[in-house]
Amino acid sequence: MPARWWPAWPARDIWQLGLIFAGSSAVYFGSNAFLPGYLSEAGRSDLISPALTVLNLGQLPASLLLIGFARQIEGSAWPFVLAGLLALVSVVGVATTASMVTVASAAVLGFACGAAFALALTLPPLLSTPSEVASVSGAMFTISYGATVVVSILSGLVWDFTGAARFAFLPITLSALPVMLFVLTIRFDRKPRVVIHGE
Protein backbone atom coordinates (compact mmCIF):
# COMPACT_ATOMS: atom_id res chain seq x y z
CA MET A 1 0.00 0.00 0.00
CA PRO A 2 1.45 3.43 -0.90
CA ALA A 3 2.33 5.71 2.00
CA ARG A 4 -0.34 8.26 2.84
CA TRP A 5 0.56 11.95 3.20
CA TRP A 6 -2.20 12.69 5.72
CA PRO A 7 -1.77 10.70 8.95
CA ALA A 8 -4.43 8.39 10.31
CA TRP A 9 -4.49 10.18 13.65
CA PRO A 10 -7.77 11.56 14.98
CA ALA A 11 -8.32 14.99 13.43
CA ARG A 12 -8.24 16.66 16.84
CA ASP A 13 -4.60 15.69 17.43
CA ILE A 14 -3.45 16.87 14.02
CA TRP A 15 -5.24 20.20 14.40
CA GLN A 16 -3.63 20.71 17.79
CA LEU A 17 -0.15 20.41 16.32
CA GLY A 18 -1.05 22.44 13.24
CA LEU A 19 -2.49 25.33 15.22
CA ILE A 20 0.45 25.42 17.63
CA PHE A 21 2.79 25.76 14.67
CA ALA A 22 0.37 28.19 13.00
CA GLY A 23 0.46 30.48 16.02
CA SER A 24 4.19 31.12 15.83
CA SER A 25 4.15 31.34 12.03
CA ALA A 26 1.26 33.82 11.91
CA VAL A 27 2.84 36.09 14.51
CA TYR A 28 6.21 36.07 12.77
CA PHE A 29 5.09 36.49 9.16
CA GLY A 30 2.28 38.88 10.05
CA SER A 31 4.59 41.13 12.02
CA ASN A 32 7.09 41.20 9.17
CA ALA A 33 4.30 42.13 6.75
CA PHE A 34 2.57 44.88 8.73
CA LEU A 35 5.39 46.44 10.76
CA PRO A 36 6.65 48.66 7.89
CA GLY A 37 3.19 50.03 7.17
CA TYR A 38 2.56 50.72 10.84
CA LEU A 39 5.84 52.58 11.35
CA SER A 40 5.32 54.56 8.15
CA GLU A 41 1.87 55.62 9.32
CA ALA A 42 3.34 56.59 12.70
CA GLY A 43 5.91 58.81 10.99
CA ARG A 44 8.86 56.65 12.02
CA SER A 45 10.02 55.18 8.72
CA ASP A 46 13.56 55.44 10.09
CA LEU A 47 12.78 52.55 12.45
CA ILE A 48 11.63 50.12 9.75
CA SER A 49 15.07 48.77 8.86
CA PRO A 50 16.36 48.28 12.43
CA ALA A 51 13.03 46.80 13.59
CA LEU A 52 12.88 44.26 10.76
CA THR A 53 16.55 43.43 11.21
CA VAL A 54 16.25 42.55 14.90
CA LEU A 55 12.91 40.80 14.32
CA ASN A 56 14.59 38.38 11.93
CA LEU A 57 17.97 38.09 13.65
CA GLY A 58 16.25 37.48 16.99
CA GLN A 59 15.55 33.92 15.90
CA LEU A 60 19.23 32.99 15.93
CA PRO A 61 19.91 33.23 19.70
CA ALA A 62 16.65 31.37 20.35
CA SER A 63 17.80 28.46 18.20
CA LEU A 64 21.22 28.35 19.84
CA LEU A 65 19.68 28.48 23.31
CA LEU A 66 17.33 25.62 22.52
CA ILE A 67 20.20 23.52 21.19
CA GLY A 68 22.14 24.11 24.40
CA PHE A 69 19.24 23.12 26.66
CA ALA A 70 17.53 20.56 24.42
CA ARG A 71 17.74 17.73 26.97
CA GLN A 72 16.27 19.85 29.77
CA ILE A 73 13.25 21.15 27.86
CA GLU A 74 12.43 18.22 25.57
CA GLY A 75 8.87 17.05 26.05
CA SER A 76 7.84 19.97 28.27
CA ALA A 77 4.94 22.37 27.81
CA TRP A 78 6.39 25.35 29.68
CA PRO A 79 8.83 26.45 26.92
CA PHE A 80 5.86 26.79 24.54
CA VAL A 81 3.90 28.77 27.14
CA LEU A 82 6.87 31.05 27.81
CA ALA A 83 7.48 31.63 24.10
CA GLY A 84 3.78 32.37 23.57
CA LEU A 85 3.71 34.85 26.45
CA LEU A 86 6.83 36.61 25.15
CA ALA A 87 5.29 36.81 21.68
CA LEU A 88 2.03 38.17 23.06
CA VAL A 89 3.71 40.88 25.15
CA SER A 90 6.18 41.88 22.46
CA VAL A 91 3.52 42.18 19.72
CA VAL A 92 1.62 44.54 22.01
CA GLY A 93 4.86 46.45 22.55
CA VAL A 94 5.38 46.76 18.80
CA ALA A 95 1.81 47.86 18.08
CA THR A 96 1.56 50.47 20.83
CA THR A 97 4.88 52.29 20.40
CA ALA A 98 6.83 54.02 17.68
CA SER A 99 10.25 54.44 19.22
CA MET A 100 13.29 52.40 20.19
CA VAL A 101 10.90 50.45 22.40
CA THR A 102 9.38 49.18 19.14
CA VAL A 103 12.79 47.96 18.02
CA ALA A 104 13.44 46.27 21.37
CA SER A 105 9.98 44.66 21.26
CA ALA A 106 10.66 43.43 17.73
CA ALA A 107 13.88 41.78 18.94
CA VAL A 108 12.03 39.95 21.72
CA LEU A 109 9.32 39.01 19.24
CA GLY A 110 11.87 37.48 16.87
CA PHE A 111 13.35 35.51 19.75
CA ALA A 112 9.93 34.26 20.89
CA CYS A 113 8.81 33.28 17.39
CA GLY A 114 12.10 31.53 16.68
CA ALA A 115 11.79 29.54 19.90
CA ALA A 116 8.13 28.61 19.29
CA PHE A 117 8.86 27.68 15.67
CA ALA A 118 11.78 25.40 16.62
CA LEU A 119 9.86 23.82 19.49
CA ALA A 120 6.88 23.08 17.26
CA LEU A 121 9.13 21.23 14.82
CA THR A 122 10.01 18.77 17.60
CA LEU A 123 6.40 17.67 18.10
CA PRO A 124 5.97 15.20 15.20
CA PRO A 125 9.02 13.06 16.12
CA LEU A 126 8.14 13.24 19.82
CA LEU A 127 4.51 12.21 19.44
CA SER A 128 4.45 9.84 16.48
CA THR A 129 6.17 6.68 15.34
CA PRO A 130 9.10 7.01 12.89
CA SER A 131 6.94 5.86 9.98
CA GLU A 132 4.38 8.59 10.69
CA VAL A 133 6.76 11.56 11.22
CA ALA A 134 6.68 12.66 7.58
CA SER A 135 2.89 12.53 7.23
CA VAL A 136 2.30 14.21 10.59
CA SER A 137 4.77 16.95 9.67
CA GLY A 138 3.12 17.41 6.28
CA ALA A 139 -0.30 17.80 7.85
CA MET A 140 1.07 20.20 10.45
CA PHE A 141 2.67 22.39 7.77
CA THR A 142 -0.52 22.34 5.69
CA ILE A 143 -2.68 23.57 8.57
CA SER A 144 -0.05 26.02 9.75
CA TYR A 145 0.58 27.89 6.53
CA GLY A 146 -3.10 27.85 5.58
CA ALA A 147 -3.94 29.47 8.93
CA THR A 148 -1.08 31.94 8.53
CA VAL A 149 -2.52 33.17 5.23
CA VAL A 150 -5.95 33.54 6.83
CA VAL A 151 -4.51 35.60 9.71
CA SER A 152 -2.68 37.87 7.28
CA ILE A 153 -5.88 38.46 5.31
CA LEU A 154 -7.79 39.21 8.51
CA SER A 155 -5.10 41.66 9.59
CA GLY A 156 -5.40 43.49 6.29
CA LEU A 157 -9.19 43.59 6.60
CA VAL A 158 -8.99 44.99 10.13
CA TRP A 159 -6.57 47.67 8.95
CA ASP A 160 -8.90 48.62 6.10
CA PHE A 161 -11.96 48.64 8.35
CA THR A 162 -10.42 50.71 11.15
CA GLY A 163 -8.19 52.90 9.00
CA ALA A 164 -5.34 52.45 11.51
CA ALA A 165 -2.36 50.22 10.86
CA ARG A 166 -1.86 49.37 14.53
CA PHE A 167 -5.12 47.39 14.56
CA ALA A 168 -3.71 45.03 11.95
CA PHE A 169 -1.77 43.53 14.85
CA LEU A 170 -4.94 42.43 16.64
CA PRO A 171 -5.36 39.11 14.74
CA ILE A 172 -1.59 38.68 14.92
CA THR A 173 -1.64 39.12 18.70
CA LEU A 174 -4.47 36.61 19.10
CA SER A 175 -2.44 34.11 17.06
CA ALA A 176 -0.01 33.74 19.98
CA LEU A 177 -2.74 32.13 22.09
CA PRO A 178 -2.74 28.67 20.41
CA VAL A 179 0.97 28.31 21.15
CA MET A 180 0.23 28.61 24.86
CA LEU A 181 -3.17 26.94 25.11
CA PHE A 182 -3.14 23.92 22.79
CA VAL A 183 0.21 22.68 24.06
CA LEU A 184 -1.35 22.26 27.50
CA THR A 185 -3.64 19.57 26.06
CA ILE A 186 -0.74 17.43 24.82
CA ARG A 187 0.46 14.47 26.89
CA PHE A 188 4.21 14.43 26.33
CA ASP A 189 4.62 11.37 28.55
CA ARG A 190 2.54 9.14 26.29
CA LYS A 191 4.15 6.61 23.99
CA PRO A 192 4.22 7.56 20.28
CA ARG A 193 0.90 6.70 18.70
CA VAL A 194 0.99 3.46 16.71
CA VAL A 195 -1.11 3.76 13.58
CA ILE A 196 -2.29 0.90 11.38
CA HIS A 197 -2.79 2.22 7.85
CA GLY A 198 -6.18 1.63 6.42
CA GLU A 199 -8.02 1.94 9.75
What's the quick description here?
71% of the residues lie in helices and 0% in strands. The protein is mainly α and 199 residues long. It has a single domain (24-185), classed as Growth Hormone, Chain: A.
Total separate domains: 1
Identify the CATH homologous superfamily. MFS general substrate transporter like domains
Distance between the termini: 13 Å
User: Overall pLDDT, averaged?
Assistant: 87
Return the structural class.
mainly alpha
Major sheet size, sense and barrel closure: none
The CATH class, by name, is Mainly Alpha
Instruction: Based on the coordinates given, report the CATH architecture.
Output: Up-down Bundle
What is the CATH topology assignment? Growth Hormone, Chain: A
Estimate the strand proportion: under 5%
Low-confidence stretches: 194-199
Shape: globular
**SSE pattern:** HHHHHHHHHH
Number of helices: 10
**CA radius of gyration:** 18 Å
SSE layout:
Blueprint: H1 11-41, H2 48-57, H3 59-68, H4 70-73, H5 78-95, H6 100-121, H7 123-127, H8 133-162, H9 169-174, H10 177-181
Helix pairs in contact: 1-2, 1-5, 1-6, 1-8, 2-6, 3-6, 5-6
Structure description:
It is globular and about 55 Å long. Helix 1 (11-41) runs parallel beside helix 8 (133-162) and helix 5 (78-95) packs antiparallel against helix 6. It has a single domain, classed as MFS general substrate transporter like domains (Growth Hormone, Chain: A), CATH 1.20.1250.20. It has ten helices and no strands. It is 71% helix and 0% strand. It is mostly helical and 199 residues long. Mean pLDDT is 87; it is low at 194-199. The two termini are 13 Å apart.
